[in-house]
Amino acid sequence: MPVLGIIGGSGLNRIAELEDVRREVLSTSYGAPSAALTFGRLCGAEVVFLARHGDGHVFAPHRINYRANIRALHDCGVRDVVAVTTVGGILEALEPGTLVVPDQIIDYTHGRASTFFDGVDQPLDHVDFTQPFCETMRGRLLRAGADAGEELHNGGVYGATQGPRLETAAEIRRMARDGADVVGMTGMPEAVLAREIGLCYAMLAVVVNAAAGIGANRQGIALEDIRAVSDAAMKRVAILLAGVAGNHGG
Ligand code: HPA
Prior knowledge:
With about 250 residues, the chain is of the alpha/beta class. The protein has one domain (about 5-250): Rossmann fold (3-Layer(aba) Sandwich). Helix content is about 30%, strand content about 25%. It contains 5 helices and 11 strands. It has helices spanning about 65-75, 135-150, 170-180, 185-195, 225-245; strands spanning about 5-10, 20-25, 35-40, 45-50, 80-90, 100, 105, 150-155, 155-160, 180-185, 200-210. Strands 1, 2, 3, 4, 5, 6, 7, 8, 9, 10 and 11 form an 11-stranded mixed beta sheet that branches. Hypoxanthine binds near residues 86 and 161.
């Protein structure tokens, strides 16, 4: 049975429901991943969990070694990945607490090591990225949502910004004009590296705030409110992840 990889972002540093847990420190030709990988079973499926920001949330989005993270998951047999991210809602209807399964990406990041095909380790190659997420895994997420009676927003454009600061209102207005629906800092280059290495990768994006200048956040974002929204949403995320695992391979 294929191994399911789960990448946890802010607010999701571990999966409490994992059984038969074992942690392993791995290294790759790109260096060390953000944290030790956690191996375990979730609803009968073999799962590998990785905390994207490291244990203790130490790596800022631009400091994450995305290549090591994706390479390490691949090297331990993972072929399918659910990546959990937190995002700001640009589309006003995507209120805090909404769970989104995006289907497109716009990349605003810069200066990140964003390819395996840099001509050093591997020869130059190109990948098709027209549809940046794996439809099979998107479908599994949506199915887990339906099974759990959880309404997921199907589709949407994820805009990846550099961070770690939040955006200005004008930047968000520009992103809205570009067609971005949610904004986060870690979806790229993670998604493209997954594509390059051949992983079936989809994202579960948790809206934890209205983006800068949107709705109630016209004057600013109250960072202290984000924590409570995130904590509540991550409980629902855990149920969905268990559902994906339960259906894994099926
Ligand atoms: N902007 C960028 N990244 C984020 C946000 C945001 O408003 N909220 C959570 N991650």
